[in-house]
Structure formats: C-alpha cells, structure tokens
Amino acid sequence: QVQLVESGGGLVQPAGSLRLSCVVSGVIFSSKTVAWYRQAPGKQREWVAYISGENTYYANSVKGRFTISRDNAKNAVYLQMNGLKPEDTAVYYCNSLSGAWPWGQGTQVTVSS
C-alpha cells in the first residue's frame, strides 16, 4: 500500500520561501516519476512540478521560483518554493505523475501579508 506524507507548509509573507517534503512508502521510489500538485479553494487540482530521474519539469506559473528535488535514500521528494505569491496559496500534495497513488493529507501553504 502506497502512503504519502507531506509536510512543511505554513503561513508566509509574499516573496518568502518554504520547503515542502513528501515521504513515500510502499513503492520502489527510485524508479518513479513523482509530482507535486496543488489545489486552491474552489479550483481543480493542478500539477506544479515533477521529477523523472534527474530531469525536472515545471508549470509555467512556478518556473524560475520553485525547485523540485528528490532523495532516493530517504524515499523523499522536496519542493523548494521561493518568491511566493498570494496566488500560490493552496494545499500541496505529492503523487505519481498520473495521480495513481492514494492521496495524502497534503500540506497547507498560505501566502499573505
């Protein structure tokens, strides 16, 4: 059974930074493409970044501000978020690129002054 545990969210001022973590269990992590998604109130969930091997991909809305990375020894994927904007406010989740794993609880990111 795949389990996802996200952490690291919080309240931050505009232009601030946060680093999100996701620990994945129940799957051979190193071979998987892993993505970060977010869902803002009243909006559909959207992907923001994914990592396949050492290759990374970003949604246009976060390109140049967010960095996705992984530590296969820890079965973890990270999202370094810099230059945060109010429109980044959302619950952030990790999952496979297809969203096939059971969703975790997510971690709330609120960007506000």
Give me some keywords for this one:
single chain; 113 residues; mainly beta; six-stranded mixed β-sheet; four-stranded antiparallel β-sheet; 0% helix; 50% strand
Give a brief outline of the structure.
The chain is mainly β and 113 residues long. Helix content is 0%, strand content 50%. A six-stranded mixed beta sheet has the order 2-10-9-4-5-6, with no helix packed on it. Strands 1-3-8-7 form a four-stranded antiparallel beta sheet, with no helix packed on it.
Would you give an account of this structure?
The protein is an all-beta fold and about 110 residues long. The chain has no helices and ten strands. Strands 2-10-9-4-5-6 form a six-stranded mixed sheet, with no helix packed on it. Strands 1-3-8-7 form a four-stranded antiparallel sheet, with no helix packed on it. The radius of gyration is 13 Å and the shape is globular. The protein starts with a strand and ends with a strand. About 30% of the residues are buried.
List the SSEs and their pairings.
Elements: E1 3-7, E2 10-12, E3 18-25, E4 34-39, E5 46-52, E6 55-58, E7 66-71, E8 76-81, E9 90-96, E10 107-111
Parallel strand pairs: 2-10
Antiparallel strand pairs: 1-3, 3-8, 4-5, 4-9, 5-6, 7-8, 9-10
- The helix count comes to 0
Query: Nearest-angstrom radius of gyration?
Result: 13 Å
Shape label: globular
Question: Residue-averaged pLDDT, rounded?
Answer: 96
Portion of residues within helices = under 10%
Low-confidence stretches: none
Structural class: mainly beta
Major β-sheet strand ordering: 2-10-9-4-5-6
Fraction in beta strands: over 45%
Order of helices and strands: EEEEEEEEEE
